[in-house]
């Protein structure tokens, strides 16, 4: 998606440790007009798959998921990272190790929101080594729903999470795949 690549190059910042900050438009301050284009692109890619649920993880995936769900005219379900008093009844759970935070936590979704017969599209802001997506995929499998595929806004191709998921036969569509980044030079190279 050329618009996304342009936005990353103009507004993104590369930091040591393979960190790409795009918090000025994607996951802290959100450019809603731009995000609408992201939603349209995911809809274009998956429009013929019968998607009836969008699944993401809190917190950064929620804005993206809401826009994508609006495009599909279906509900957004987001996995919570902590059990709260408002999650009543049984839940599906899966452990997820956070690359960004360096911790492991259990994600959960109420069993009433994912069911056999659902056709689920998972969306998230980043794909690095794939831990968040693997956790969400586990929830879909546990529920008996059908995984249509995964959509990520930005994939760090050099960390191979997307390659591993694709090798398992999972459809992964990333709107921009970064092949390499150099914090010293501030350079970003995209995969063609």
Automatic annotation (TrEMBL):
PANTHER family: HYPOXANTHINE/GUANINE PHOSPHORIBOSYLTRANSFERASE, XANTHINE PHOSPHORIBOSYLTRANSFERASE. Its main location: cytoplasm. It is found in: Cytoplasm. It is an enzyme of class 2 (transferase). Belongs to the purine/pyrimidine phosphoribosyltransferase family. Xpt subfamily. 5-phospho-alpha-D-ribose 1-diphosphate binds at residues 128-132. InterPro entries: PRTase-like, PRTase_dom, Pur/Pyrimidine_PRTase, Xanthine_PRibTrfase. Xanthine binds at residues 20, 27, 156. This is Xanthine phosphoribosyltransferase. GO terms for biological process: purine ribonucleoside salvage; xanthine metabolic process; XMP salvage. Its EC number is 2.4.2.22. The keyword Magnesium does not apply. Homodimer. Residues 46-158 form the Phosphoribosyltransferase domain. GO terms for molecular function: xanthine phosphoribosyltransferase activity. Gene3D superfamilies: 3.40.50.2020. Converts the preformed base xanthine, a product of nucleic acid breakdown, to xanthosine 5'-monophosphate (XMP), so it can be reused for RNA or DNA synthesis. It comes from Eubacterium coprostanoligenes. Keywords: Cytoplasm, Glycosyltransferase, Purine salvage, Transferase. GO terms for cellular component: cytoplasm. The gene is xpt. It catalyses: XMP + diphosphate = xanthine + 5-phospho-alpha-D-ribose 1-diphosphate. Pfam families: Pribosyltran. HAMAP family: XPRTase. Pathway: Purine metabolism; XMP biosynthesis via salvage pathway; XMP from xanthine: step 1/1. It comes from the Bacteria.
């Amino acid at each position: 998606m050329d618009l996304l690549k342009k936005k990353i190059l103009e507004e993104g910042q590369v930091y040591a440790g393979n960190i790409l900050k795009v918090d000025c438009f994607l996951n802290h301050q959100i450019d809603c007009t731009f995000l609408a284009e992201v939603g349209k692109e995911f809809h274009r890619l998956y429009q013929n798959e019968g998607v009836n649920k969008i699944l993401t993880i809190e917190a950064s995936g929620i804005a993206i998921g809401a826009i994508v769900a609006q495009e599909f005219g279906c509900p957004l379900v987001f996995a919570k990272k902590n059990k709260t008093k408002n999650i009543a009844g049984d839940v599906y759970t899966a452990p997820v190790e956070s690359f960004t935070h360096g911790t492991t936590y259990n994600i959960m979704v109420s069993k009433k929101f994912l069911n056999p017969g659902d056709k689920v599209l998972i969306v998230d802001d980043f794909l690095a080594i794939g831990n968040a997506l693997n956790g969400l995929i586990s929830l879909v499998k546990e529920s008996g729903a059908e995984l249509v595929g995964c959509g990520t806004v930005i994939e760090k191709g050099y960390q191979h999470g997307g390659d591993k998921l694709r090798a398992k036969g999972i459809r992964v569509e990333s709107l921009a795949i970064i092949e390499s980044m150099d914090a010293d030079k501030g350079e970003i190279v995209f995969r063609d």
